[in-house]
């Protein structure tokens, strides 16, 4: 397939699917069919993109035929391609999960097109080659996610949505300020062109100020210490399938942009920020897992765990070695799958028990032993138990930490791994192992089955986690090649600018 189509399809497919889902919003069957076809086509196209990028190294297209840095550039390297692919997988999972329900309320018809618009914003953020369009894709994500958070109009949703949107607007403003500084001085927003121009020592004063602005802006979106407080206040409020989509994807966009920025056009500012990033990584891991240990609602616990796991990814970025960056790439893939799956399992538990509060539920091991086993797979993977995917991701980062003699953050990573396992076993012991609390009358009535499609979805994602752990060598090799690309930005610059990149 033509390279341009491979880059455009991850954007066009969710857009067309959103239109199809919106136009069929009065019919559950037609809307579900449109969403499912779009998700399948998107997943197939993303796999083709990964295979092609792994062979060619980079794919680039210039919209409208305007050459970079003047046109709109779409570009995929191995990191961007694998992020597009795993996003498509999660889109497919959250499309299949609700199938077969016997309810169709007034908000359902609006949810499917918004999910597709959110996915389009995420895919655009991974594939764009310039900062202005990155800002546009962020706004697409923000608008879609804000409406998804508020669908249903429950008080908890509105409170969480307000915190979410206020903090993300602040982040977008800081990002826009950083991009404005660069454009005012350099006259370009193309990331490859910025990298070339910032290599001139005359422009070096821009690097630190812009680097700090981007760190705060994307740190807010990623949920790093001390800017994470909006995340556990909002991610548990929407329906579980939306929580899963948010938990799997949104914070990873912030991590992705930090990786892109500090390996491409802000590489010169990185040494001044490295110690700060290491400290942020350690504090993010620690505060996230302490928050998880202190809560007793499944989705709140999982939300705090998003924060602690983002700390691991920032640790890999801060170490900035090939092994550390490869560990972060592998960690991104592992965590998107595992975290989305845990939220989907939490949704099944809430459906069966009527609550996610650990004090109000129990006994699922006896009534739903298969669900208890399916929960254990992503839970143990998140805790870093071998041979699951989380073990290899953590092992790579800890090895990278010891090689770099970053003893402090490495020790924190080891301790947080144990504490993560503790809080996962707390959920399992309370929700699955302990006896069910006594209930009276009609309040004790429970659904006979969680549904074929929800169970099938969580089993499939658990299978991906097991596969990444047992036979994930090719994925880690791919991650190593992605890390090598990130550490050699000349290839990206030449792919986007061609001869211009070398001549400047």
Protein model, in words:
The chain is mostly helical. It is built from 21 helices and two strands. It has helices at residues 3-23, 28-56, 78-96, 108-127, 131-150, 155-186, 191-198, 204-222, 230-234, 240-263, 270-294, 298-319, 322-353, 364-367, 369-383, 389-403, 407-433, 452-470, 473-487, 489-497, 499-503, and strands at 59-63, 72-76. Strands 1-2 form a two-stranded antiparallel sheet. A hairpin with an 8-residue loop joins strand 1 and strand 2. It is globular. 55% of the residues are buried.
In short:
This protein is mainly alpha-helical and 504 residues long. Helices cover 76% and strands 2% of the residues.
Explain the layout of strands and helices:
Elements: H1 3-23, H2 28-56, E1 59-63, E2 72-76, H3 78-96, H4 108-127, H5 131-150, H6 155-186, H7 191-198, H8 204-222, H9 230-234, H10 240-263, H11 270-294, H12 298-319, H13 322-353, H14 364-367, H15 369-383, H16 389-403, H17 407-433, H18 452-470, H19 473-487, H20 489-497, H21 499-503
Antiparallel strand pairs: 1-2
Name the helix and strand elements from N-terminus to C-terminus, one letter apiece.
HHEEHHHHHHHHHHHHHHHHHHH
| Mean of pLDDT | 90
Largest beta-sheet details? 2 strands, antiparallel
Given the helix and strand composition, which structural class is it? mainly alpha
